[in-house]
Amino acid sequence: MLKWALIFLVISVVSGILGFSGISSATATIAKVLFVLALLLFLAFLVAAFAITGSVW
Question: Which of 5, 18, 20, 55 counts the highest number of beta carbons within 10 A?
Answer without folding.
Answer: 5
